[in-house]
């Protein structure tokens, strides 16, 4: 039996900074109130039925609204949308009520805000909620999606900074 207590929160955060990941905005809405946050903790779960999961800190502004409404949108950002990621992460000093002031937003099915021009928007209904330490794992059934025709490189986060993918000729 393993009785170890695990690593410190600091060591965990330093280590996880090395795990490069796509940058996303998770959004929801309820009774006219919109919430959103920047997140890298998102991944596919199943193609049939189409499902994905997002991990949201229980202290994040959008957490309780997702829990109440059982809906969210996952907006996968392009490399040139770093300013939107910074806004939703609270990194640019703007008031949180100004988060939706950047970009153009619309809806697909659930009413959760979807960023026009994102690489892809996934509109989801929560089918399962799991508590895991400081976070909740929301598994969403994807009921609508929209893909950017132009595409482009994704915005990534790794090494504690926003970044992108290297071009093959630069490697």
Account of the protein in words:
By secondary structure, the protein is mostly beta strands. Helix content is 13%, strand content 42%. 32% of the residues are buried. It has a single domain (9-160), classed as Pnp Oxidase, Chain A (Roll). The strands form three sheets. The chain has a seven-stranded antiparallel sheet with strand order 3-2-6-9-10-5-4, with helices on both faces. A three-stranded antiparallel sheet has the order 1-11-12, with no helix packed on it. A two-stranded antiparallel sheet has the order 7-8.
SSE blueprint and pairings:
Elements: H1 9-16, E1 21-22, E2 24-30, E3 33-39, E4 42-47, E5 50-57, H2 63-69, E6 71-76, H3 82-88, E7 105-106, E8 114-115, E9 120-132, E10 135-147, E11 156-158, E12 161-163
Antiparallel strand pairs: 1-11, 2-3, 2-6, 4-5, 5-10, 6-9, 7-8, 9-10, 11-12
Structural features:
171 residues, mainly beta, Pnp Oxidase, Chain A, 3-stranded antiparallel beta sheet, 12 strands, 13% helix
- Kindly provide the radius of gyration, computed on alpha-carbon positions and rounded to a whole number of angstroms: 16 Å
Helix content: 10-25%
Global outline? globular
How many domains comprise the coordinates? 1
Q: What CATH architecture would you give?
A: Roll
Provide the succession of SSEs: HEEEEEHEHEEEEEE
Number of strand elements: 12
Could you give the order of strands across the largest sheet? Answer: 3-2-6-9-10-5-4
Average the pLDDT over all residues and give the rounded result.
92
Q: Count of DSSP helices?
A: 3
CATH topology: Pnp Oxidase, Chain A
Query: In this structure, how is the largest beta sheet organized?
Result: 7 strands, antiparallel
**CATH homologous superfamily designation:** Electron Transport, Fmn-binding Protein, Chain A
| Intertermini distance | 45 Å
CATH class call: Mainly Beta
Strand-residue proportion: 35-45%
Spans of 5+ residues with little confidence (pLDDT < 50)? none
Structural class: mainly beta
């Amino acid at each position: 039996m393993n009785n170890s207590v695990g690593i410190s929160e600091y060591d965990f955060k330093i280590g996880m900074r090395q795990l490069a990941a796509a940058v996303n905005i998770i959004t929801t809405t309820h009774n006219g109130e919109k919430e959103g946050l920047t997140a890298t903790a998102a991944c596919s779960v199943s193609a049939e039925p189409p499902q994905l999961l997002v991990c949201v800190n229980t202290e994040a502004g959008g957490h309780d609204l997702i829990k109440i409404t059982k809906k969210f949108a996952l907006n996968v950002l392009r490399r040139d949308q770093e300013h939107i990621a910074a806004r939703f992460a609270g990194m640019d000093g703007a008031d949180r009520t100004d988060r939706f002031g950047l970009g153009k937003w619309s809806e697909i099915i659930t009413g959760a805000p979807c960023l026009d021009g994102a690489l892809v928007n996934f509109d989801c209904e929560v089918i399962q909620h799991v508590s895991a330490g400081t976070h909740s794992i929301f598994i969403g059934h994807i009921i609508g999606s929209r893909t950017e025709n132009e595409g482009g490189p994704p915005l990534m986060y790794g090494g504690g900074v926003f970044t992108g993918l290297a071009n093959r000729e630069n490697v």
